[in-house]
Design brief:
single chain, about 100 residues, alpha+beta, about 30% strand
């Protein structure tokens, strides 16, 4: 069953975040992660919410999800993301009626 990750970012260092994107994008492609949404101007629905970017990712299953986030090259790229932004993320499964 597919695993989704929804992440929202507050970016405080645009150059640092751009470095993360430069390093991480080829890894997402190589590992077969689907980028279902990527918005650099999301519109907050909740009052007082400040979000500079929102991303929705799809992984084939739990094993794919775990494999991706333990790849050494992705972990190195994520250090740039973590230094350049504050991230809030959730993992969830596809709805199965």
């Amino acid at each position: 069953m597919s695993i989704f990750v929804f992440a929202q970012f507050q970016i405080h260092d645009k150059a640092g975040y751009a470095k993360y994107v430069e390093l991480a994008t080829p890894i997402f492609m190589r590992e077969g992660v689907k980028i279902l949404g990527n918005d650099e101007a999301p519109v907050p629905i909740s009052p007082g919410l400040k979000v500079d970017k929102a991303v929705l990712l799809e992984f084939r299953d739990e094993a794919h999800y775990k494999h991706f986030f333990t790849q050494p090259d992705y972990m190195a790229a994520a250090e740039h993301r973590n230094a350049a932004s504050t991230i809030t993320a959730v993992q969830f499964e596809r709805f199965a009626p």
